[in-house]
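The methods section describes the discrete structure representation at length, but only in general terms. What matters is that the chain and its backbone geometry are given together, residue for residue. Nothing conveys this as quickly as seeing an actual entry. For illustration, here is how one protein appears when written out as sequence plus structure tokens:
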Amino acid sequence: MRFSGIYVFASFVTFAYAFDWQGSVGGMPVTWASGCDWNGPNINSVASDGDYCGMQCLLQSGCTHFTWTDYSGGTCWLKSDSGGSAVDLPSGTNGVCGWVEHPPSGDWQYDDTAGNAYYSDACIWGDGGYLYQVSADSMLECVWMCENPAVQGCYRWEFADNTGICTFLSADTGSVASYTDNLHCGWIL
């Protein structure tokens, strides 16, 4: 009996890794693969391009896993858990699935007045990818500068309220933000 339990576990591990999992989407804590689905319960669905489904999950409270399919021109299915290992999508269906690692602050907000940017209060990127720092009058100015094509490679940013320092970061690492007072952090779409 014990031997068959090990066999079942080994089968699960082999099956779970049958997909070509890709890390980080633009420096965000999103892992994904093509052609898969999760059986976990849907908590929401939103019209979305496949490239943004993981970001939608990051923004949805309680979302841990996601599946995007070409249903109705592109639908992102947000899930509260995986429901087990990833499964193949039905034949003829295009899509991806993945999971997210929510930053501790977990309160990402979208602000189109700041360009196409997501941000959170009281956070900092903790993994490197540092480009350089400049002075800014506000978080909004920091975002605008990061979006400027003259700032080569800027995808993520941090802004310190108390010093007015804006830090630009690249997107080449699998980033997770951590809690820090008096700082805002975010990323550019």
